[in-house]
Amino acid sequence: MGYTHAEAEKFIEYIAPIMLSEAHKRGYNIVSTSIAQAVVEGAAGTSTLAKVHHNHFGMKAQKGYKGEYVRMRTKEEYQKGQLVTIYANFRKYPNDESGIQGYYDFLQYKRYANLKYAKDYKQFAEYIRADGWATSFTYRDNLIEKVERYNLTRFDNTNIEYFPRYTDTTVSIVIALESIGVDSSFLYREKIYAANYSDKYKGSEKQNLAMLAKLSKGQLIKP
After folding, report:
1. Maximal C-alpha separation, the chain
2. I need a labelling partner for 216 at 20 to 30 A (CA). Which of 75, 123, 170, 179 fits?
3. Alpha-carbon distance values, 86 to 72, 76, 81, 129 (Å)
4. Considering the entire predicted model, what is its pTM?
């Protein structure tokens, strides 16, 4: 699958704003490597899977998936240097927006949980290859090369600050925040929640415990 540098640049300028919007809703700060995935997996929007079926990331229809899919031929590298042609079911979507939403839905599988905490594009690439996204032995290096070639780090938000890790024991986010010298008022908790999650903060027990869990890991982002 071939595409020109100009085609890739045009594709990136088109898809990046859509991906940025969805990534930030979901709490992902590194978007460059995901855009690189779209360039690699969907041949910068020129592959049939990307152009016709709006799956820019090569996502397969795994067991339990209930959406639409298409059966297509693909190559896998189960042993280094040996490509095997197989047929597999791939997810398909009605438009690019839903395909990108589907990508971030796909990342919610437990094995990809570490991606939210990648510190830069290289670590994201290392994680997603190790997590099993692709069988290609050069997948990590290929993603990194695309990020650097197209200057995709301009889409990353790496100036993220986290609250100090809470190391004591409590089930109250209010107590935990106060113990580290942070405003625990509802209004400020609302701001904290908005910086970490996409749904509206209502002060529910579930939401508070979610923030507490992040705070206990040192992963709660400052607003």
Report:
1. 59
2. 123
3. 8, 7, 16, 20
4. 0.71
